[in-house]
Design brief:
Four copies of one chain form a homotetramer.
Chain A: H1 3-13, H2 20-23, E1 28-32, E2 35-38, E3 43-46, H3 49-52, H4 61-72, H5 85-99, E4 107-109, H6 115-130, E5 135-138, H7 147-152, H8 156-160, E6 169-172, H9 183-192, E7 203-206, E8 209-210, E9 216-217, H10 220-232, E10 236-239, E11 264-267, E12 280-283, H11 303-317, H12 321-341, E13 348-352, E14 355-359, H13 363-375, E15 378-379, E16 381-383, E17 389-392, H14 400-425
Parallel strand pairs in A: 3-15, 5-6, 5-7, 7-10
Antiparallel strand pairs in A: 1-2, 2-3, 4-12, 8-9, 11-12, 13-14, 14-17, 16-17
C-alpha cells in the first residue's frame, strides 16, 4: 500500500473532523518508544506522545510481551465489569503501588474508556452527592467532547461543535489568566457575595496543568486555596489529572506534595501504559454512592488495558527512580527551552515537568515552527487559546540523546523563524 | 490468586457502580468463542456476549493472530487521528465490504472509543446542521451515560445518576409502547400541530431494536414512516445501531431491507470484532460539516481495534454466508424460545434475529431464571424497564450444539420456576 | 385628534409586536359594558371582552364609582405589599364570598399584576416544594410570555419569540387532542413506565378550558383522573383558571363541581373586575413555604384593583344569581352556535359556558368571518392552533338583546361566507 | 375597620411571601405626595416611594384629576393592544417630550405591565436578533422574578425561589464589585479569549445604578466601555432603567450625558407617574423584528396608566426645571448623607442623584436604623447583598422641608445607633 492510496481513502471516507493527520500527512507504520516510522521507512521523534497518552513511549517491550502472552492464553479481552484476573491484578497493583504509599484512600470507578467518560462520571457524582447543579470550571480548561464535559471545556471551536448552548457550568479565571487579577481572590469574592448570582457550586473542576489550554500550571498555593474555598462552601474538588497525571510532571499525580486531597480524580490517557483506551475515576470513598449500574458502559472492562496498566505500574512506579529520571529530564528541558525562548523576543516558558513549552506570541509562528520541525523529523504540536504555545510532550522514557536531538531540531526551527522574520522585516 | 482475594479487592477498591460481577461472582480467566472459563476451571456458555460486543465470540483466532502479529511488529498502537496502515486498511475494508455492496455513501467519523461518544457526536452534528435543539428519543431507549446521550436514555435509574435535570430531548412512545396507541400517528399529530409545544426537532434518535429497553423491535413500516416524517419536518434520523448492528439481527445493519437511509448511524460494541473499545459514526456526506478537530478525543486511533475490525469484516462479511448462518440460528432460537415461552402463562417472545428473549412478566422471576441458569453454567441477563425480559445475546458464532445446550439450561430454569411457583401456590 | 394621526403614531413608534389593533384599526374612545365606541362615534358590540378580562363588562358603574371615591379621598394607589384598607377589604371579601362558601382553604399570593407572573410563581413554588424540575403541560396550552410560562405555552409562534430553547416542561396531549388516543391513559402509561424517560413531575399545569388553544374543554373525568395521577406520583396540580375562571363558564372557578382540589390556582384577567392589572396565586396552605420577599415585584399592591375587585365580588358573587344568569346565557349561546355551526359543513362547537365558539375548519375562513363581523359592528376573534375557531367571549353582563344581535351578526357573517364560497365554487 | 382585623386577615390569608408589611406593620389609608397616613391618622414621610415607582409622589393632583375625568367619561380602561385615545396621546407625548429632544429613535413596546415583563421581552429580543443565548448580567443585579429575568438577578434568596437551576446567563463583576479588579478589563479579557468558555453574548443586561443591589452606580466610562465592547463582539446593551430612570438620578434616563445609546431599554416603576402598573421596552428600530403578537399579554393596554403617564410627561418634562430641582435636592441629599456617614466609622456614601444611601457595614445595624426611623415617622428601607445600605428613595417631588426633616430623623436614628453601640461597648 502506498501513501497515496492511504490519503485518498481518508479524503473519501473519513470525516472532516480529523485533524492531526493534516499536520503530519504521512502514514505511520511502526512505533517504538519515542520513535515513529512511516511507511517509507522514515523515522520521526515523537514530541506529541499521543497528547500525553504515551508517557512510557510506544510499544513498551514489557507491556507488549505481557499483552501477547495474555492474547496467546485466550485471556479475557472484553469483560464488561465482571471479575477477571487481569482486572484484579490491576486493582491490586494500583492499591499497592499507587494508593498505599501515598496514603490515599480512594475507590476506583471503571468509567467508559476515555477521559471524557471519567469527567462526566465525576460531574454526575459531584451533582448527585451535593444536590447542586453548578460546576465551576476555568478559562482555557479542556475536559472532553461529550455534552457534560464539553460544557466545562473553554475552547470556542470545540464548544461550537455542540450545536446548542451548554449549561450547568460557571467559568472562573485560572490562576494568572487575567493580568493583575488575583483569580483566587476573585473567586472567593464571588462565592462570598450572596448577591453575586453565582449559585453554590457542586464542584470545582480543574486541571493542575492545562495541557490543551496553553500549558498553564497552577501553583500549589492556588490549588490549596481553591480546596479551602471548596471546603468552606461545601463544594468538591474534581482534579482532572488526565493529561498532567501518570508521571507527566514527575510524580504519579501532578498535584503530589501540594497538600491537596481531591474528592474526585479523573484519569485516562497514559493510564493503560501503552496507549490503549482506559479511563477511571478515583472517588473519595464516602462519595461512592452510586447504585449498581447507575453509570455503566460497554467498554469498562478492557482487559488488555488492565494487563498493560499493571505492568506499567510495576515497572515504573515500584520505587522513585522513574520519577527522579523524569525530574532530571524536565530540568534539562527547562534549560533548553529557556535558551530557545531567549531567541524569541516576548516569548515565555510555560508549563511544568515534562509538560513544558514556549509561548511564541502567535499561532501563525507556532504553526510554522511545528511545520519546520516536522520537515526535520520531529513531531510536535501547539496548544493554547490561540495555538500560540509550542508544546513539548515527549515520552518520559525518551532517551536523553533523542530528547536533546529533538530539542536541537526545535531550536533550529525557532532560529529559522527568527531569521526569516528578520529577513521579511528588512 | 484465589477467588477470595479477587473479591476482596473489588469490595475494597472498586466503586459501587459495578454491576454484572454481582450476578456472576466468579473470576473469569479465559474466553474462547462462546465459552468463558473461571479461575477454578469451570466453563460457562456465554449468552450475554459483552452485551452484543462479542458478536464474533471471544478471542476469534484470526483476529487474535493478526493482533499478535501487529504487536510483534511494533505496529502503531495509539495513533490519535493520524494516518496509519491499520487505519487505512480498516477504512478501505469498510468501504469495500460494507458500504459499496449496500450502495451506502457515508463518511466515517472516529469518535471516542465507546458508544456514547458516537451518540454524542451524532446529537451534536444533528443540532449543528439543523440549527435546532430538540432531539426526539423514545420510551425505553438506551443511548449512553454521558450527559447528552443520557438525556436521550429513558431508564429512570440511569437518569438519576446525572444528579441534575437532563434537557434537549423530547420523549415519544416507541412502536407498541402504549396499548392501543399508534405511536407513529401520535408523533405525526404532535409535529403537525403548531401549538403542540413540541419544537421542530433536529433529529429522531432511535434503536431499530431496543436491547436494554426490553428487546422491542420496530417494524420496517414504523421506521420508514418515521423517516418520512423526519424528511417532511426537516429533521434527521439517527439510527443507533450500536447494539442491534454488526450482524446481531442477521444483516450487517439491523435496518437493511427496510428502505431506510439514516442520516447518522452510531456504531460501537461489536465494531472492533474482538471486544476492543471502538466506536464510529457514519455520516451522510453532505452533513459532514465538522471543522478539523471540532470534535476530537484521545482514543480515536485505537489501532489494535482497526486491525481486528478489518479482519472481522474480511472474514465474516465478504459474502453472505455469515448472515445466512445467523438467520438460521435465529430461526432455531425463535422456535426454542416459543417453546419455552409457552411454559410461562402470559409470557411473550420479544426481539428479532439473534437478539431475542422472553418477557416473563416480572423482574423477580426473570432474575431467578438467570440465577438458576448461572448455577448450571449459563451466563444470561435480563433487560426491560422492569428487568422482566430474559435476553439471549449469544455470540453469532456460537456452535449450534452449544446454542442448543444453552437453551436447554434456560428451558430447565424456566421449568423449575414454574414448578417452584406451583409449589409455592399450593 | 383625528384617527389618521393616531394610526401614524403607532406605525412610527409602536413595536411590530402589536396585534389586535391590526384587525380592528379604529381608535376606541369610550366603553360601557359590552359596547365600545370609536372616535367617530360608531358603536361596536364586544365579543372579545379583553380576552376574558372584562367578564363584568367595561366600566361597571359601581366599580367606577368606588374607584373615583378612592381617588378623590387620596386612597393609596401604589402600596407595594404593605397593608392598606383596600387590600384588607379585598382579602376579607375574597375569603368571605369566595373561599368560605366553597369550603376552600387557600393562601392568596399577590404576584406581579399579570397572568404570567402568577403562572411563574406557581411553577417556581411547585418546583421548590417538590424538589423536582419537570412541569407537565399540555398541547395547545397557553400560560404566558415570560420564560418559565412560555416554556409551558404550546404555540410555536409565541415560542419562537424566546430566541432560545425553552426547558423544564414536558408536553402531553390534552384531552381529545389526538384522535383515538386516550390522553389520560397515555400519560398514566408514561409515568408508570420507569424507562419512559419522563422524569417524575413537579406538577401538571393545565387550563380547564383552553381559551387561546381553541376552546378545548376538559371533562371532569379527565381532570379528576389527572388529579388522581398527580397524587399517586407526588406531583401537584396547577389549575390555570386565568381565562376560564371568574365566572366565565358559570361558577366562579371553572372546575367547580368536578371534585377537583387544585394545589395551586393562578388567577388574573377578570380578577380586578374592571380590567385593571391584577393577578394572584391561590396556594394550598401547607405549600406556602415562601420566605418573605422570596418572590416579590413592584406592582403587587395595585390598590385600585383591590377596590374594584372587592366591589365585583360583593356585587356579583354574594349569591348565586349571577352564576345562574351566566348559565342561562350560556345555554342560549350554545343553541345559537349550534344553529350557526350547522351552516358550515364539518364545523364543530367548542368550549363551555360563556366561552364557546365554532371550529370552522380553517384559519382563513375564521379570519374572514371575524372581518365581516367587524364591518357590521361586532368585535370577535379567533383562537386555536390554526386560528380556526371563531370564539365568543362576550362580557357575562351583556344584555340579552345585545348578545342576540351580536350573534345575529355572526350568523350573517358565517352565512355570507358560505354564500361566497358557494359562489367561488360555482 | 381596626388594624387588628387587618393584620389578622393577612396572617390568615396572605402568602408568606409578603415582606414590606412586616417592617411597617400598620394599615395605610391615605397618601399624598411624600406623606402616607395610617388608619389611626398618623403620618409618615415616605423615603421608599414604592421602590422608585412614585418619583412624582403619591396621588399627584393633576394625574388624579385626569384619571377621574377619564373614568367619569367612560374612557377605555382595558384596551388589550388596540388603539385608544389615551394610548395615542401617551405615545405622542413620549415621542415629543422624551425622544425627540434627546435625539433618540426608539420603538415603544407595550409589554406586560411590570418591570420583569419588559426585561423578559428585552432578553427574548436580544436572543432572537443575535441568534445567541448568553446574556451577561452583573453581580448584585436585580431584574425581576420570572424565570428569564430571575436568571439575571443575583440575589441568592430570590434565585432559591425558582426551585430549579437558572440558565442562559453568565455573571460578571459590576464596576467596583471586586477590590482591586478592573471589571471592564476583566470582561474584555474574558470575551477576547477564545478559550475562556464564555460564549459570544447576545447582550449585556445592566442597571446604570443598582437599586436593590446596594446603590452601586456605574460610571459613564464603565458604561461607555461596556458599550464599545458590546459593539465589538456583536452584542446588544440592555440598559435596565426601571429603577434608576424616569428622573430618579436627575435626567429622564439615568444614562443621559454619558454617550450611551442602549439597544434596548426596559422601563417600568415610575413610568405611569402615579404608581399604576405600566412597563415598556424601548427598542432600537432595526431590532424591532417581532411578528404581530409574538410577545403578547393581557394588560398591555392599561389606559389608566396611559392617561397618568401622559400627564406626568407634560407636567414634569416639558422643560428642564424638574430635572434641575431634582439635581438641587440630590446635592442637598449628598451633603446631608455625608454628614450622617461621618458618624459611622467605615461607612460609605453610595448611589447617585435622588438614589443615594449609606452603607453602614452591616445588615443588622441598617435594619435597626430603619426600625428607629419608622418609630419616628419615616419609612425607609435597606438594600445591598447583606441589606447593609440604608437607602433614601424619597419622591422627587418631596418638599424641601420634608426632605430635611426626614433626613433629621435618619440622622437621629444613626446617632442613636452609635450611642447604643458605644454603650454596649462600654
Amino acid at each position: 500500500m502506498t501513501i497515496g492510496t492511504n490519503t485518498d481513502i481518508y479524503t473519501r471516507r473519513e470525516s472532516q473532523a480529523r485533524s492531526y493527520c493534516r499536520a503530519f500527512p504521512v502514514t505511520f507504520s511502526k512505533a517504538q518508544n519515542a520513535t515513529l516510522t512511516d511507511s517509507d521507512g522514515r523515522s520521526y521523534t515523537d514530541f506529541l506522545a499521543g497528547c500525553s497518552s504515551l508517557n512510557y513511549g510506544h510499544n513498551d517491550p514489557d507491556m507488549k510481551e505481557a499483552l501477547i502472552a495474555h492474547l496467546a492464553a485466550d485471556g479475557v479481552t472484553h469483560g464488561l465489569d465482571m471479575h477477571t484476573n487481569a482486572k484484579a491484578e490491576f486493582l491490586e497493583a494500583f492499591e499497592r503501588i499507587i494508593l498505599k504509599p501515598r496514603d490515599m484512600d480512594y475507590k476506583f470507578m471503571f468509567t467508559g474508556p476515555t477521559g471524557t467518560n471519567a469527567v462526566e462520571a465525576a460531574m454526575k457524582l459531584a451533582r448527585k452527592t451535593t444536590g447542586r447543579d453548578t460546576i465551576i470550571a476555568f478559562t482555557n480548561g479542556f475536559h472532553g467532547m461529550t455534552m457534560g464535559a464539553l460544557a466545562a471545556t473553554g475552547n470556542a471551536g470545540k464548544r461550537a461543535g455542540a450545536g446548542t448552548t451548554l449549561g450547568g457550568v460557571v467559568r472562573m479565571p485560572y490562576e494568572g489568566a487575567m493580568d493583575g487579577v488575583d483569580s483566587l481572590a476573585m473567586i472567593r469574592a464571588m462565592l462570598d457575595n450572596p448577591s453575586s448570582g453565582i449559585d453554590a457550586p457542586a464542584a470545582f473542576l480543574i486541571e493542575p496543568v492545562q495541557g490543551e489550554g496553553g500549558l498553564n500550571a497552577a501553583s500549589g498555593a492556588f490549588l490549596k486555596g481553591l480546596q479551602d474555598l471548596a471546603r468552606k462552601h461545601g463544594a468538591l474538588i474534581i482534579m482532572d489529572d488526565i493529561q498532567a497525571g501518570i508521571g507527566r510532571t514527575g510524580p504519579f499525580f501532578s498535584f503530589e506534595g501540594m497538600g491537596i486531597k481531591p474528592d474526585l480524580i479523573p484519569l485516562a490517557k497514559s493510564l493503560s501504559g501503552m496507549g490503549l483506551p482506559f479511563a477511571g475515576l478515583l472517588i473519595r470513598p464516602d462519595l461512592d454512592i452510586w447504585k449498581p449500574a447507575e453509570h455503566n458502559g460497554t467498554f469498562r472492562g478492557n482487559n488488555h488495558a488492565f494487563v498493560t496498566a499493571r505492568v506499567a505500574l510495576e515497572k515504573f512506579w515500584s520505587d522513585d527512580s522513574f520519577q527522579r529520571q523524569t525530574e532530571a529530564k524536565a530540568a534539562y528541558l527547562t534549560e533548553r527551552l529557556q535558551g530557545i525562548a531567549a531567541m524569541v523576543p516576548g516569548s515565555k516558558l510555560k508549563g511544568r515537568g515534562m509538560m513544558q513549552g514556549i509561548d511564541v506570541g502567535s499561532g501563525d509562528m507556532a504553526a510554522e515552527v511545528c511545520a519546520t520541525c516536522f520537515e526535520h523529523g520531529l513531531i510536535i504540536e501547539t496548544s493554547g487559546a490561540h495555538d500560540e504555545v509550542v508544546k513539548v510532550l515527549a515520552p518520559l522514557t525518551i532517551p536523553q540523546e533523542q530528547l536533546a536531538s529533538g530539542l536541537d531540531i526545535l531550536e533550529a526551527a525557532v532560529k529559522a523563524q527568527g531569521a526569516s522574520h528578520q529577513i521579511a522585516a528588512e
